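Task card 7
Instruction: Convert sequence to structure tokens.
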Amino acid sequence: MTLKDDIMTGFNPANFTVAKAKPLPVVLLLDVSTSMQGNSINQLNAAVKEMIADFARAEKNEIEILVSVITFGAEVLLHTPYTSAKDIEWQDLRVSGATPMGTAFSMAKAMIEDKDVTPSRAYRPTIVLVSDGEPNDSWQQPLRALVNEGRSQKCDRMAMAIGSEASNAVLNEFVSGTENKVFTAQDASQIQEFFKFVTMSVTTRTNSQNANVVPKPEEVEQLVEQEQNKQLVESEDEFI
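Output:
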């Protein structure tokens, strides 16, 4: 179009749109069964809240970290639909019921497969599973569909087992096909450590030339260690 043509067509504000940020989805599957009561649920709430705050700080004009939370206990609930990290007002989780993990897998699968919910333009999603027990519903088929079929098989997946009662067989199958290993927390105090790893894995992608590339676990561990050392030095400087 020439300058003359442009002048002839007149001013159209629709020609001056700004490109929308591309979403990077993170789906949390969180066990809120009664066995999580006490320190476990308190530590989980604190760790997720801190992770969301870190995500909000890492968001860029071109990348938006969308967080969704599915809880499973007395029932399976969409606690938080996809929401930009900077817009989340965290509501603490409460414990109740058993461990219907299979239904949670089915809900996550449906979210990922629905292109109106998880759009095709989104970056590769991350799914995070946290549990301290065995599923009490039918989980084999929903998990295998999540891991092996459709769009969901391309997701990065991370898992944490809390305590000795968690089902490592289920969690190991959940992370199969990824380079991640199940993180085992002997007690609730290690929940925050796992979520620091999740946070760094996701936020590193916002600084990458290709946010679809998931960093290797050993790279993430090094970055977490560097961040901890940096915080230690800063705290020592404040003391001096």
